[in-house]
Structure formats: C-alpha cells, structure tokens
TrEMBL record:
<feature type="compositionally biased region" description="Basic and acidic residues">
    <location>
        <begin position="46"/>
        <end position="58"/>
    </location>
</feature>
<feature type="region of interest" description="Disordered">
    <location>
        <begin position="42"/>
        <end position="70"/>
    </location>
</feature>
<protein>
    <submittedName>
        <fullName>Interactor of constitutive active ROPs 1-like</fullName>
    </submittedName>
</protein>
<feature type="compositionally biased region" description="Acidic residues">
    <location>
        <begin position="59"/>
        <end position="70"/>
    </location>
</feature>
Length: 70
C-alpha cells in the first residue's frame, strides 16, 4: 500500500510539474502575442503615414508634370 501511495505521489508531482511548465510556456506565449500585436499596430501606423506621403508626392509629381507641359 505504501509503495502504491509513493507511486501515486510521484505521478502527481510529475503531473503538477508538467502543468506548471505548460503555464509558464503559456505566459511566455501570451507575452509574445501581446508584443507582436503592439508591433503590428505600430507597423499599421507607419504604413498609413507612408501611404499619405506617397499620395502627397504623387500629387506633387502630377502638378510638376502638368507645369512642364505648359
């Protein structure tokens, strides 16, 4: 009986250790997802600014081309 209890305790300890390891891994992955989400939002903002600059430059180019044709 004592041997069975020891085996059960060992199994339980191993399972608890695995659960803790999975929880730690999950926390790490959650942090990575949060960081990637923040980077994505920053990239979207940068892309929006670049698109605005591109549009402005294209408009200036059209104006210059129009003036050159005159």
């Amino acid at each position: 009986m004592s041997n069975e209890n020891d085996d059960l305790k060992n199994q339980l300890n191993k399972t608890v250790s695995k659960v803790k390891a999975y929880e730690t891994k999950d926390e790490g992955m959650t942090m990575q997802v949060k960081q990637l989400s923040e980077e994505l939002e920053a990239s979207k903002g940068n892309a929006e600014k670049l698109n605005e600059k591109l549009k402005s430059v294209e408009e200036e180019k059209e104006e210059l081309e129009s003036e050159m044709k005159k």
